[in-house]
Amino acid sequence: MTRFPRRGQHSLRLRLTALYSGLFSVTGLLLLGLTYVLFRERLTGTTVLVLPKDAPYADTAPSLSKKQVAALAERLREDALEQLLLMSLLALLVMLVASVALGWLVAGRALRPLHTIAATAQRLSAATLHERIGLTGPEDELKNLADTFDALLDRLHAAFEAQRRFVANASHELRTPLAVQRAAIQIRLGRARPEDLPRIQEELLDTNRRSERLIEGLLTLATSDRGLDRREPADLARIAAEAVGQSRPAIHSAGLRLALDLRPGPVNGDPVLLHQLVGNLVQNAVRHNVPGGSIEVSTGQPAGVLVVRNTGPVVPPGETEGLLEPFRRLTRSGDGAGLGLSIVRSIAQAHGGTVTLTARPEGGLVVRVVMPV
User: How far apart are alpha carbons 345 and 351 in whole angstroms?
Assistant: First the structure.
């Protein structure tokens, strides 16, 4: 259904019609003026006069003086020019009316794809993001606009689906520790003996720490998704050395071998978020490793590139990309919340970088982070 413009708006179809008609009027007037000038010049250069029967002195034309002949020629010339101008203006008026009608039809046909795009945009909501314009026709500007709009809808639909999954997973992950705490408080504490209280207290503290890690991870993920508030020069080598230093006790307690190749890696970004990125990668490499395994961290090869390699369980190649999604884990074992790698990707994207995961055939992962320099 055609939507009429609101009050105060000007219809694009009306403006195009006025433009077409205006251009036709201008070119028609120019053509009329040129024809008038050329015809007048032609009449001025005529040396032979043909007199109509009702012209004065028609029977005595041979005896006319030069002055009389000139007067008759001037009168005939003026009459001819007047008739030409009158008939031309009448024809121009008829063609102007026709041009308005044709311009209105042509403009409506040309703008029909825009009405389709607008109607689709007005129907869209969170529940109908699967709809597409699907405009067919020649590869022109309007087809390109419709395809661009469809591509935007694809990205929005993917973002809404990811957000829906994230909310569902986050609510599940938050509900689990709360349920454990409630059960421990309502059931176990009520029936606990004095010697059981320290163990129950430790369980509650562990559950509380898990909730804190989960909430901190969610806050970091939301902060990095919002983008960067500031950028300043930073060195990936220094940041990686600090992050690895904080994780050395966990690395040693797990019996893992550590290999560092930290070359200067200058980047521009938020040092706090970059430290969180490297720290998450190292913690992930420690948490998902095997006894007697190894961790390798390298930077600056080339500049702006961070690589973390670790041994561990065999990861199916088709599962690597899914590990970058929030709450995605290969197994439910461990105390992680499944946010580490998703936070890494979010921080990298906030800096304009990329994260690539590669499964090692012998087990473990190779994580490659590329930052713009």
Answer: 10
Q: Which residues of 271-294 are buried (b: 16+ CB within 10 A; e: fewer)?
A: bebbbbbbbbbbbbbbebbeeebb
By CB atoms closer than 10 A (0-12, 13-18, 19+), residue 193 is exposed
Helix (H) or strand (E) holding 182: helix 141-183
Q: Cβ contacts of residue 99 below 8 Å, gap of 6+?
A: 20, 21, 24, 25
Quick check: 275 and 242 in contact, CB under 8 A?
yes
pTM, 2 dp: 0.53
CB atoms within 10 A of CB 240: 27
Q: pLDDT by residue (tens digit) across 321-335?
A: 778 776 666 655 555
Backbone angles phi, psi at 312, to 5 degrees: 160, -170
Tokens read off for 139 = 């590869």
210-240 pLDDT, tens digit per residue, is 677 667 766 666 666 666 667 889 999 999 9
| Cα(339)–Cα(356) distance, integer angstroms | 16
Q: Tokens standing for 165?
A: 């999954």
Q: Which of 240, 361, 209, 351 is nearest to 306 (CA)?
A: 240
Helix (H), strand (E) at residue 188: none
- Please tell me the predicted confidence (pLDDT) of residue 275: 87
Residue 126, C-beta contacts closer than 8 angstroms, at least 6 positions apart: 160
Measured between alpha carbons, how far is 112 from 52 in angstroms, rounded to an integer? 57
